Amino acid sequence: MPGLRIRRPDTGAVILEITDRITRLVGTIALPVSGSLVVDGGAEGDVWFFYNFGPTYSTNQDTSVTLSGRTISWSNIPAGSTLTYGVY
Amino acid sequence: MPSFKIRNTNSNLVIDHNYANLGLRTKGVVAATAVFTYNSKFVDLVLPNDQGVIAFRCTSPCMIVSSQQSGGNMVYRFVVSGGGANIEYWHFDLVKYSTLYNTPARLIIRRPSDGQVAFDSRTPYMRVRQFLSWNQIPGSTDLSYAGTPAVVQVKRGWSINRAITGIPPGQTQFIVWVSSWATTNGGTVNVRGLDYMNINDTNPNAVYPDNNFSEQTMYMVIDVSNF
């Protein structure tokens, strides 16, 4: 099978297989209070994301973040929050 | 300037000169020892953070009940049901914070535009195996993976069933049902449906949504083998 395999010389552990679904970071944005984002940009694979709430976040705050297809939507987000997203 | 692209057997792009990913910044083990509520313990983990993603493994049901920026740090509050079990964590962030594998052999791909490194095989890159989303987790669900899976709690599900003010005086007590307990054992990740905890809040001005629920619970599963 054609491909590329990268191993750690010290342990022999496989770092990367060309047949892998590799994880890619597409971007990070500062989140406004509400909005949405379509993850495309020519990137391939399924969407992943993670958000870090800002310093004013309360555990009781009724925030909303949803994923539908390749669209990430959010509302009622505390100031200073960020969204990191990509594909895998 | 020539560009560089590798595609897999499905013709999907794997690596090119615009590759970007997060890398492992730090890892460690903490124990939840402080009393939280409802037979559970918590620990606050404070980590330097830029654009971090945190993954964890725990042999007891575990969740992150809050994550909050504080200066240049992120404070993650882990709660473990029953307490006692250690929490292993892996914190991924921008690759400039990563410690590279100590090896002379490497594959490095640079951006033609500015010569900056786009990919370095010595970097312990984050490996997403699955992104999971439920409107309601169906009871207790086991998911199996090759390698060593760790859980990233992207969004905690909850449902507030009732809120009572003034019990005890000056406090608000409410019962919140949460659906984000995750347990890892070997290659298995277990996620559990709704469970509840009583929470007292001493903030007399707090306002809670009554009889409300979140629309989605979301996890990522990360492979942390060989990190």
Describe the protein:
The complex is a heterodimer of chains A (88) and B (227). By secondary structure, chain A is mostly beta strands. Chain A has one domain. Helices cover 0% and strands 45% of the residues of chain A. Chain A is built from no helices and 8 strands. Chain A is elongated, with a radius of gyration of 17 Å. The mean pLDDT of chain A is 80. Chain B is mostly beta strands and 227 residues long. Chain B is 0% helix and 56% strand. Chain B has no helices and 21 strands. In chain B, the strands form 7 sheets. A 4-stranded antiparallel β-sheet of chain B has the order 4-5-8-7, with no helix packed on it. A 4-stranded antiparallel β-sheet of chain B has the order 19-16-15-20, with no helix packed on it. A 3-stranded antiparallel β-sheet of chain B has the order 3-9-6, with no helix packed on it. In chain B, strand 10 and strand 11 form a beta hairpin. The chains are: A mainly beta (88), B mainly beta (227). The interface between A and B is large, with 50 and 52 residues.
Oligomer: heterodimer
Largest interface summary: A-B, 50 and 52 residues
Helicity of chain B, as a percent range: under 10%
Question: Termini separation of chain B (Å)?
Answer: 35 Å
Number of strands of chain A: 8
Binned, the helix content of chain A reads: under 10%
One letter per element, helices H and strands E, the order of chain A comes to EEEEEEEE
Count of the separate structural domains of chain A: 1
Q: Can you list the strand order of the major beta sheet of chain A?
A: 3-8-5
Sum up the overall morphology of chain B in one term: globular
- The arrangement of helices and strands of chain B along the chain is EEEEEEEEEEEEEEEEEEEEE
Sheet of most strands of chain B: 4 strands, antiparallel
Q: Unreliable segments of chain B (pLDDT under 50, ≥5 consecutive)? A: none
Mean of residue pLDDT values of chain A: 80
Number of strands of chain B: 21
Largest sheet of chain A: 3 strands, antiparallel
Percentage of residues in strands of chain B: over 45%
Task: Enumerate the strands of the largest sheet of chain B in spatial order, edge to edge or round the barrel.
Answer: 4-5-8-7
Name the structural class of chain B: mainly beta
Distance between the termini of chain A: 22 Å
